[in-house]
Amino acid sequence: MYALHGFFIGAEQWTQEIHVPQTIEDAFAKGTRPMIVDAHYRTIPDRLSRGLVGHSMGGYGATRIGMRHPDVFGSLYIMSPCCLSFSKMKPMDAATEKAVRALKSPADSASLPWYVRPQLALAAAWSPDPRKPPLYLDLPYHGTHTSAVAYRVQNHVLPFFSRTLCFERCN
To answer: Looking at residue 58, what is its pLDDT?
Structure first.
């Protein structure tokens, strides 16, 4: 897994903020498959064995690099990407989120407040999930741009790559 940090911090500060190595070791202890994280080692020379994650400006970079080099990276995880989200959108309150989760069909979304529908469109574009009818998407993470980044790395990012990457020769 290759990791890209945000614009205003360096790699050393980012690894401190996400509590490396403890975050990674805790993910492994919870069942995430061991993997090389952001270092220089020999790897399986196959795109299906390489993942790219980025946060903030690194999320934007991971999107651009991943789209331009699908021959190099088989999985991408984008966290709070700069320049790709509507950061000034009004967040969903608990009642609105409950109403979204209770929808029975996409047409039912017309009854939601106007500001929620663009959020659902963004979620459908950036985080589709065919296992979650009726909207087939993941709702945005709770919190702010920088909240719970270590938690997300440990409990979402690393397990995602554990499920999506090939850990043996992929041919």
So the answer is: 95
